[in-house]
Amino acid sequence: xxxxxxxxxxxxxxxxxxxxxxxxxxxxxxxxxxxxxxxxxxxxxxxxxxxxxxxxxxxxxxxxxxxxxxxxxxxxxxxxxxxxxxxxxxxxxxxxxxxxxxxxxxxxxxxxxxxxxxxxxxxxxxxxxxxxxxxxxxxxxxxxxxxxxxxxxxxxxxxxxxxxxxxxxxxxxxxxxxxxxxxxxxxxxxxxxxxxxxxxxxxxxxxxxxxxxxxxxxxxxxxxxx
Length: 226
Known about the structure:
The protein is an alpha+beta fold.
């Protein structure tokens, strides 16, 4: 039982006892009866005032509890918002770094493709009759070994760069032989030479990449259109 309730019950019991005693004394002393009635009125007023004070205290306490709960909830929401914003900033920064990484990878792949084409032309030139000494030096086995070693080094660097991208959840977007997907590909041209149903990708102009957050860069492709 709370102290307020106990006080109120004590006052009620006291008033009841006082009323009984007052009724017994009414026939003996009128002045005492009047004084007791005044005392009872004062006690009633005191009880009402105490009741109102208790109600006000309880109401104020409930309000303070509500204010504290709202402040704690607001603080929790603020902490969650700060964590969310920080996570988004980190993700955006990682995306910027990965996007800046892609042009370097494009240049490396372009260099490898050019080296392969040159190596193929050079291998065909070996069978050409009547080569000059300078031409023969360019297509010598030693020169070819140097070029092949250079291409192997570029491929190794490319594999390491792809490993870094994969560690960040970045993977190439499939293109050639797959159907065109506007959510993954950008059509930069069409071709009437190809196999499969219309809309099949026949070549890749620039490789695209995607990450868990979405497309990092759309793949630029040529689409088969009969």
